[in-house]
Write a structure and sequence with these properties.
By secondary structure, the protein is an all-alpha fold. 79% of the residues lie in helices and 1% in strands. It is built from 15 helices and 2 strands. The protein has a two-stranded antiparallel sheet.
């Protein structure tokens, strides 16, 4: 199967939308529950610390530039231990893809279509994910590139329309939250925002055409995604208040319901649902794609497409049993998910980077060796071509000399014939 390649710009857009993901709906309530009116401060600190994680992922990706995260586990840790950690990572991504389908179903049933079962939404959305995985990462990157302008436009309209209802009294007093709860909020924020970015190592840098530009895109996409979430959390605190934000399951959707301009422009909260569907589509696909590609690479299967449909059906079934209710989902995201995800998104990449340095596994040196070999091959090819040209020139010169000798011989033959004719005439005259 041919290797698929995406551009660094497409990778930046995927990073931006992937970092937002489900956070656009659930993260304001998650961190406002502990940080109260200082939730926006926790978000700013969380985005700043997230750049250290991005630096970690980039450093690890540069060690194995031609391998995915699953293949890097086996190369750095060895065949047995690498497969063990890769299986844990695949379980994390596959469980997360099923959980996101659960979020889609529960949100649509709770806020948009109460009489429709969650199974219907999970089935319809999974069809999109499975079809996108079948078409490949290049088509998915193009779709993200098309959806990105609509996402930014909707977000700007949403932010502008909600500003008349801002009340700065809701953020006072500032920095009243104890440091313990503020730290807890930062960890929760990062567990949803930046911890999942390790999944992008399935694309970076092995699938991106320009690696240096992709590194900048990694930082820029994370920064813009963090700014979007900071603005959203700040608006929720300023408009709804910290208590109301913490008590709601989807506070950003409730925020969009408050939009009312001149008693004419109302009930446009579905635009928030549109933004969330775009971002959760990107994140769900990446989780599902990482699971399918990871299993294919773990089992040495060249073509991953036969695995897409079975995994899609398993994902639908998992979405119906992963959480019995929304309370269980909230407890899982607040208490279990930060610890569970940190094992494979922070501890594992850091361990891989340390071991790679100890074992001196460096993609740059491999690239330099390959470049040296390529230059040596080019020089050898040039020498061969020069020798061939010299031989051909020698052959052409010898051919020219032979042709000249033949011409001289042909020119001398008539003279000898004339001399012979003259002698014969003299003989006949004497007789």
């Amino acid at each position: 199967m041919e290797k698929e390649i995406i551009s660094s710009r497409q990778f930046m857009i995927i990073t931006l939308l992937f970092s937002i993901g489900t956070a656009i709906l659930i993260i304001p309530a998650t961190i406002a529950n502990a940080a109260k009116q200082d939730a926006w401060i926790a978000a700013i600190i969380g985005v700043a610390i997230s750049f250290l994680l991005v630096k970690l992922y980039i450093s690890l990706g540069k060690r194995t530039p031609s391998l995915t995260f699953i293949e890097a586990n086996e190369k750095i840790l060895g065949r047995f231990l690498g497969k063990f950690t890769a299986v844990g990572f695949i379980l994390l991504t596959f469980l997360s893809s099923g959980e996101l389908l659960y979020f889609i179903g529960i949100f649509m049933k709770t806020e948009v279509m109460p009489e429709t079962p969650t199974m219907a939404f999970a089935l319809l959305f999974s069809i999109i994910i499975v079809y996108a995985a079948f078409l490949g990462i290049e088509v998915f990157a193009r779709s993200a590139e098309i959806l990105f302008p609509f996402f930014i436009l909707i977000f700007i309209v949403f932010a502008v329309c909600i500003t008349p209802q801002i009340s700065f009294d809701n953020v006072q007093p500032i920095l009243e939250t104890p440091k313990k709860f503020l730290l807890y909020s930062i960890i929760r924020f990062m567990s949803i925002f930046s911890f999942p970015l390790v999944v992008l190592l399935m694309l970076f840098p092995s699938v991106v055409n320009v690696q240096k530009s992709a590194q900048k895109g990694f930082y820029i996409g994370t920064l813009i995604g963090g700014i979007v979430l900071i603005i959203l959390i700040t608006l929720c605190i300023l408009v709804l208040g910290p208590a109301n934000t913490a008590s709601r399951t989807f506070p950003s959707y409730a925020l969009a319901q408050r939009i009312s301009i001149g008693n004419f422009l109302q009930r446009i909260e579905i635009i928030m649902a549109g933004m969330w569907i775009v971002s959760i589509y990107i994140r769900t696909f990446m989780y599902f794609y990482a699971s399918v590609i990871g299993v294919a690479q773990l089992c040495k299967i060249q073509d991953h497409r036969p695995l897409i449909l079975p995994f899609g059906l398993l994902m639908i079934g998992l979405s119906q049993i992963i959480h019995p209710n929304i309370v269980h989902s909230n407890v899982y995201n607040n208490e279990i998910w930060p610890i569970f995800s940190a094992i494979f998104t922070v501890i594992l990449p850091l361990t891989l980077l340390i071991i790679a340095k100890i074992r001196k596994i460096d993609g740059n040196s491999q690239g330099e060796n390959s470049n040296e070999n390529q230059t040596n091959n080019n020089n050898q090819a040039q020498q061969d071509s020069e020798t061939k040209n010299k031989n051909s020139n020698k052959q052409s010169d010898s051919k020219d000399e032979a042709q000249n000798e033949n011409k001289l011989e042909n020119a001398s033959e008539p003279q000898t014939k004339n001399e012979d004719d003259g002698k014969s005439d003299q003989d006949t005259s004497e007789h």
